[in-house]
Amino acid sequence: MEEVTPAPDSLTVITMMPGSAKPVAAKPAGSVEKIALEITPGRTRSLGYLEGPKRTLDLTKAEVIVAAGRGLGDPEKIGLVRELAATFDRAAVGASRPVVDAGWLPLEHQVGMTGQTVAPKLYLACGISGALQHTMGMSRSSLIVAINTDPRAPIFSIAHLGVIADLHRFLPILTETIKKKKHGPTS
């Protein structure tokens, strides 16, 4: 959170990404001073409006997000993340920007500054290094678990729990353990 003091005789505009902060108790309404502004046209012009693709996945509603990072190695490994997410109720698959840029998952899965800002109860970062662009979109999660082979990965500085392991071996074991706890041993 940031405390901002506007410079005297200046206009200050503050914006926030949706979901970037948890709601706080309402305070009494302050006073509003309307100021008439005369804005001179800039040297830019609009060429039109192009609407982006409709988002079918709203990660902000998920209680658990299992996010895929470049550390998965290739798109065929996304199944490991999907299987783990399927063990939870109200879960979704998220992704870091490199995963989306590589075409492994569509943009609607991206978490971060240029994706969705989320604050689930549990965020499992699988093979995500923890670049600032990504962590700004998920750092408000209640419990962050990072799984990465690099003990110096920046994701560990914000994670509540860190697992230094090969996720290709660890995720199947974690998935099977959760299934057993939830449903009993499988045949």
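[next item in queue]
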Amino acid sequence: MDNINNKLLRINQIKELTGLSRSTLERMSKEGAFPQKITLGPNSVAWFEREVMEWIDKKGLARLNT
């Protein structure tokens, strides 16, 4: 995996980018409708920026195609 956009984003950054709540993000992740989180430690999770931005882009494209 290359290092471009492999930055890790924390929950508050994800919430700000998507406008979704923590519980909605958890539910969507479990359903496979949002990128999977990465466990960093017992109380610490993050998401790959690249995957989140791809998800946002797909949502935008879907909107254009409706």
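[queue empty]
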